[in-house]
Design a protein that fits this description.
single chain, two-stranded antiparallel sheet
Length: 170
């Protein structure tokens, strides 16, 4: 049996992280832990409060560890835009004997903004459309990969599934 993998994502809202996450899950059979969908399951009408986020990520981190411990690969679909958060998940993966793969879905801010803010349709299973202020707040805090981080960078603006598969070596 091969070593399980933990896939983490960096990218702005609307960058294409979920599209890449679904591709990885489909190609590898990894379990797709999708934070947005889990938040809606747990809270119905989420407020995105600090307490809600703490509860959500405690659950998701525990679930990821449980799956990795059982030898299953995990696609952890959320913004791991903080180095400290990526490190915490790397530590979980290491304790479980898993490799960590960080995927940076890089998309020009204007394109990501258009997708995230001006998309009044049902996308990814729920109604999207954050405010410009919410988008700006998330993007302002995004910590790009550190020099010591090994990442796979994917162009989310012109997402080519076959190119992504090659980059990810799936």
């Amino acid at each position: 049996m091969s070593q399980p993998k933990l896939y983490l994502f960096i990218g702005a809202p609307g960058a294409g992280k979920t599209t890449v996450a679904k591709l990885i899950a489909e190609r590898t059979g990894a379990v797709h832990l999708w934070a947005d969908a889990e938040r809606h399951k747990m809270f119905g009408q989420p407020t995105h409060s600090t307490q809600e986020s703490i509860q959500l990520y405690e659950y998701l981190n525990h679930r990821a560890a449980e799956l990795l411990d059982n030898g299953q690969s995990v696609v952890f679909d959320t913004n791991f835009n903080f180095y400290e958060d990526r490190q915490k998940l790397r530590e979980i993966a290491t304790r479980c004997g898993a490799d960590t793969i960080v995927v940076w879905v890089s998309t020009p801010e204007a394109v990501a903004r258009q997708r995230a803010v001006h998309a009044p349709e049902l996308r990814n299973g729920y109604m999207v459309g954050m405010t410009g202020e919410q988008f700006d707040a998330i993007v302002a805090k995004l910590e790009p990969p550190a020099k010591n981080e090994k990442i796979i960078k994917i162009d989310g603006a012109k997402l080519d599934p076959e190119a992504a598969v090659r980059l990810l070596k799936l």
